[in-house]
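4.2 Preliminary Data

To establish feasibility before requesting continued support, the project team ran the inverse folding procedure on a target of 346 residues. The structure was first converted into the token representation described in Section 3, and no sequence information of any kind was made available to the design step. The complete token record follows.
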């Protein structure tokens, strides 16, 4: 069920809205500023508006969630459970580093993709998030850290390309209304047929990541069930089109699962598949989740895999996830929470 709220609206839309409440049009800019820069949760917080209007509008939905729970890992990464207007809980993660504050946002409550190694998929799909519910996650982390958010990655719960319209709307909002540069916004997808091409047609300068996780169709569909409807070469062809249209390189994410997809032969095959591709490979050592028996490979194995890619002139980095101790790392969202509390809090 979607809700008409103020968050997510542009300056012209807010101006139009405020005029309809009987206020002069210059109030639109004030409302915009208090909504996006001052981060109000309720309209009666806008002290520059007339008292009577504030009293009348106090209960109008702004679109901000409540922090239901949060937990901080020793590295400073903080995971939040946010309570949405319909009582559902969504997770978001704030990742502070020396110069950055990155928010890992969710695009759906749950996820329908059911990748074997990911905790989110274990809980199934509940609903898409609205654009304002994605923007709210960023504002919430910004407010809690008392620091401007510099980067946003769509790597929380959900498959962004399965909710492309709302994800795009939030990307425009984060860029234009919150002021985060497009290059500092990353969309990550496991691939939905036709959607990479659709995204390309928006000519965004965002960072685009594709969760590849295997060097061939057979292995890929053995760990990613939805891959069986999306042949490997078709996926790569769509990625090539993306690069041709946007002139932006693609990041390929590759989770390393010991004994499953981390052997030297896999690295060689991956290098061949990506030969001549304008891309960068991020190797993500598996973060443990309780439901499945996968294991993270040892450092030596990881380095051998990386070296083989480098020998084939493939740009590669190993990305250790932050927030492991708070179950806030890649793939861990939802797991412990599910075990200890119901998904819906009334
Ligand atoms: N649905 C999107 C975004 C969500 S997950 C996608 O699949 O890209 C963000 C990244 O974390 C993906 O690359 C995903 O495959 C990876 N991931 C999932 N489970 C993981 C785990 N247990 N350990 C490490 N990375 C994981």
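Position-by-position output of the design step:
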């Amino acid at each position: 069920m979607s809700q008409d709220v103020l968050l997510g609206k542009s300056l012209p839309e807010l101006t139009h809205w405020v005029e309809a409440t009987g206020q002069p049009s210059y109030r639109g800019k004030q409302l915009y500023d208090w909504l996006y820069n001052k981060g109000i949760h309720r309209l009666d917080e806008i002290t520059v508006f007339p008292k009577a209007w504030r009293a009348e509008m106090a209960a109008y939905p702004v679109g901000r969630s409540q922090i239901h729970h949060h937990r901080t890992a020793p590295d400073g990464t903080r995971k939040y459970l946010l309570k949405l207007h319909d009582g559902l809980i969504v997770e978001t993660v704030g990742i502070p580093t020396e110069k950055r504050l990155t928010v890992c946002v969710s695009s759906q409550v749950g996820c329908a993709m059911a990748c074997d190694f990911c905790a989110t998929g274990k809980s199934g799909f509940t609903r898409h998030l609205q654009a304002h519910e994605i923007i709210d996650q960023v504002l919430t982390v910004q407010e809690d850290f008392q620091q401007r958010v510099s980067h946003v990655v769509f790597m929380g719960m959900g498959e962004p390309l399965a909710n492309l319209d709302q994800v795009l709307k939030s990307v425009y909002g984060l860029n234009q209304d919150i002021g985060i540069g497009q290059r500092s916004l990353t969309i990550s997808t496991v691939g939905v047929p036709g959607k990479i091409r659709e995204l390309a047609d928006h000519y965004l300068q965002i960072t685009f990541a594709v969760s590849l996780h295997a060097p061939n169709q057979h292995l890929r569909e053995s760990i990613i069930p939805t891959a069986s409807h999306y042949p490997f070469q078709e996926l790569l062809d769509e990625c090539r089109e993306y690069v041709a249209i946007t002139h932006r390189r693609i990041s390929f994410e590759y989770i390393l699962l010991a004994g499953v997809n981390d052997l030297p032969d896999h690295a060689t095959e991956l290098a061949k598949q990506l030969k001549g591709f304008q891309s960068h490979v991020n190797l993500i050592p598996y973060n443990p989740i309780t439901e499945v028996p996968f294991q993270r490979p040892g450092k030596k194995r990881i380095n051998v895999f990386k070296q083989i890619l480098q020998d084939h002139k493939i740009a590669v980095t190993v990305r250790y996830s932050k927030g492991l101790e708070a179950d806030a790392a890649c793939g861990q969202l939802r797991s412990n929470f599910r075990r200890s509390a119901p998904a819906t809090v009334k």
